[in-house]
UniProtKB/TrEMBL annotation:
Residue span(s) of domain DM13: 33-130
InterPro entries noted in UniProt: DM13_domain, TAT_signal, TAT_signal_bac_arc
Organism the protein comes from: Litoreibacter roseus
NCBIfam families: TAT_signal_seq
The entry's keywords: Signal
Signal peptide: 1-26
Name used for this protein in its record: DM13 domain-containing protein
PROSITE patterns from the UniProt entry: DM13, TAT
Domain of life: Bacteria
């Protein structure tokens, strides 16, 4: 039988779970952004910029998709691509992957995650971070 006390306890736990759940799925560790494509490429999904003691990382989450191109790389930007932040080749066109931010780069200085074609020097997608 559900009494007033158990009802309030259940309602409180349910409300807390609905607030916490989105952060748990995203990792809840850093700033999130949603990709938009560039240069006629389709790039979608979520990027997370995670700061840690050794600099940080860029996490492309499970919903990430990219339609493919030659030489795609992952980098950061502040209102535009910054080539000094290149983290290496995109390891997968779909799903989750992780990229270590180069030493000496402060993640707080950047507000974008870029997928960049180094061969042709064009953007393939950008996620503006919140």
């Amino acid at each position: 039988m559900l009494n007033r006390r158990s009802f309030l306890k259940t309602a409180t736990l349910s409300a807390a779970a609905s607030v916490i759940a989105p952060y748990a799925l995203a990792g809840g560790h850093g700033r999130l952004g949603t990709f938009t494509g560039a240069s006629n490429h389709v790039t979608t999904g979520t990027a997370e910029l995670v700061k840690s003691g050794n600099g940080g990382s860029v996490e492309l989450l499970d919903d990430f998709t990219f339609d493919g191109a030659p030489d795609p790389k992952v980098a950061l930007g502040k209102d535009g691509y910054d080539p000094s932040t290149l983290m290496g080749p995109l390891t997968s066109n779909n799903g989750a992957s992780s990229y270590q931010i180069p030493a000496g780069i402060n993640p707080d200085d950047y507000n974008e995650v870029w997928i960049w074609c180094e061969r042709f020097n064009v953007p393939l997608g950008v996620a503006k971070l919140g």
